[in-house]
From TrEMBL:
Full protein name: Transcriptional regulator with XRE-family HTH domain
CDD domains: HTH_XRE
GO molecular function list: DNA binding
Organism: Actinomadura coerulea
InterPro entries from the UniProt entry: Cro/C1-type_HTH, DUF5753, Lambda_DNA-bd_dom_sf
One Pfam family, short name: DUF5753
Length: 271
């Protein structure tokens, strides 16, 4: 978990913003709770901004600059940070956000999403050279799954899979059958929906790449490989663009009940 001691304001603009916010707040004798009220958010939001776990939002920067008379200091810093592609803010860790999410929405174009992969399928994917230690990576993926599905109150999970996910061989036929059986098992859970976008849908906005939408602390975040080059997105306008794309994909996806039949057929044809 990130903290003030791990920030490097000489390297990262986002780290500089986090450190400077804390310095400005303390210089004014303002508590974290007071700053949270100023920007209309929970106290934990201020703590996470100052520890580097989440970035300062532009609207919050504008409020702070106005109320503290900073002549658009934080507004400029946030704009500069957002424009620097070589200084992408890490939002801590995707798995950390998934573990806290109350809602998860997934679209995948070519592979079963990591949150739904069986150990054998994950090992087959990770063994092609994506990581140095596939076994360690598989264990990390299983821990990520447990943090989502094994909670006392797991999140609502909505998954849309491109038809190619079902037809792309990964590992042996047994590995694929086991993976598809796992999808059917998850689809039976009351808080999980799995739908398939069939080949007949033709070309659509989903071909821009996979995406994941998370609802954390009543706020939506997005993770996508394109068009933003990969990483977590927090700006509300950008997140809304991803939500619109997800909805358009969902509008042409096969309903959940019929999708189970599609997955079952794919499992039966694995040879």
């Amino acid at each position: 978990m990130a903290g003030q001691e791990s920030l490097d304001p000489d390297r990262s603009m986002w780290d500089f913003i986090a450190v400077e916010l804390r310095r400005q707040r303390r210089a004014r004798g303002v508590s974290g709770a007071s700053l949270a009220r100023l920007i209309g958010r929970d106290r934990s939001i201020v703590s996470r901004i100052e520890s580097g776990r989440i970035p300062m939002q532009l609207d919050h920067a504008e409020i702070i600059d106005r109320e503290w008379g900073l002549d658009r200091l934080f507004t400029r810093l946030v704009r500069f940070a957002k424009e620097r592609k070589d200084d992408e803010w890490r939002l801590g860790d995707l798995a950390e956000q998934e573990a806290r999410a109350t809602r998860v929405r997934l679209w995948e174009i070519g592979l079963v999403p990591g949150l739904l992969q069986t150990p054998d399928y994950a090992r087959a994917v990770l063994s092609v050279g994506l990581v140095r230690d596939p076994d360690e990576a598989v264990q990390g993926r299983l821990s990520r799954q447990a943090a989502v599905f094994d909670r006392e109150r797991p999140p609502e999970v909505s998954v849309i899979l491109n038809w190619a996910v079902l037809e792309q061989p990964v590992g042996s036929a047994d590995v694929m059958r086991g993976q598809l059986a796992r999808l059917l098992e998850l689809a039976e859970l009351p808080h999980v929906s799995v739908r398939v976008l069939e080949k007949s849908a033709g070309v659509h906005v989903g071909y821009d790449g996979m995406l994941e939408l998370l609802t954390v602390d009543a706020r939506d975040l997005a993770y996508a490989e394109a068009p933003h080059g990969g990483g977590l997105v927090t700006d509300p306008a950008d997140v809304q663009d991803f939500e619109v794309r997800y909805d358009r994909i969902g509008n042409i996806a096969t309903p959940a009940g019929s999708s189970r039949a599609v997955i079952h057929h794919a499992m039966e044809t694995c040879r």
